[in-house]
Write a structure and sequence with these properties.
About 35% of the residues lie in helices and about 25% in strands. It has about 375 residues and is of the alpha+beta class.
Amino acid sequence: MPSVEVGTSEDLLAELATWVRLETPTTDPAAVNRLADLAEAGLRRAGADVTRIPGRDGYGDNLIARTPEASDRKPILIAGHLDTVWSHGTLTQMPYRIDGAKAHGPGIYDMKAGSFLAFHAMRCLLTQGVATPRPITLLLTPDEEVGSPTSRRLIEQEAAQAAYVLIPEPAGAGGACVTARKGVGRFTLRVEGRGAHSGSAFEDGASAIVELSHQVLALHRMVDIERGITVNAAPVWGGSRPNVISPDAGCEIDLRVSTAEDGAAMEARILGLMPKTAGCRVFVEGGMNRPPYTETAGIAALYGRAQAVAQQVGLALPKQSRGGGSDGNFSAALGVPTLDGLGCPGAGAHASHEHILWQHLAQRAGLIAGLLETLG
């Protein structure tokens, strides 16, 4: 039985509310850094060795906290993100509130609750002087919601040195953790046509919108549900007026795959798209953003260890595979045993009904702290 005391769900929710009331859209580094300041101060008070890596390219800082004891053993890395998809002012429309067993607020489920639980678990271990078999590294990042462009290298660097990686992304239905995720590709498709008056010079034009329509249909034909391949075109743009044949159009493309082989093949197919309409040209940029996260023997063994800890803190811990990506994709692709979905159950990620089931907070904190305390 883990010895660390994590407190009550009521106490955890009261502190989590402060995190939720700090709006942290990915695109506002100063806002993300205000929450990083709060986490940094708490970790320093607890005795962690903290490193702050200044943000770049319009994103916030990365925060790394380590347990202070010297050790030659590989650490456990626990990694979460502080940014959310929600713009400033969202709290006015969907304020933090408690409705029975649900606590609502922008980003509370994805994933301020999970990142807070990781922060709290490490803080409890440090302040209570609980010895851990391995050193612990906590990494809090600023840009996961846009694909981790500035934090990916740091995540991979820390993961490559770790024995295990824990990701406190939201738990699934029934409190499920995650042992596999699809890989993710992101692309932008742009069409150049030839503009003309749609009444007096129709034949002089080459509609970029017609060409884009052909391309979107071609993309949809690439979907193979049985193989776990999905392709979605959105948003779509083009045109200016009804009487103008559009000289430009385009879309963004989301690709999901279950295997690295399919990722490489699909990336080549999408980048190789050719025009179907005379007078139009097609340009595609992008590629695989997150590699697939496949359950390995090491991940299965780590899940078994987590089930044992979950039982001790009174939790059922089913597992699932998800179509959405996370920073766990990066560590799993390096061959490091990675367990994801360790955050709080709830629903509504990126949606107006986003919420957590707050009465689970203490048990989920106990699960994370118990894993940090017992994984040897």
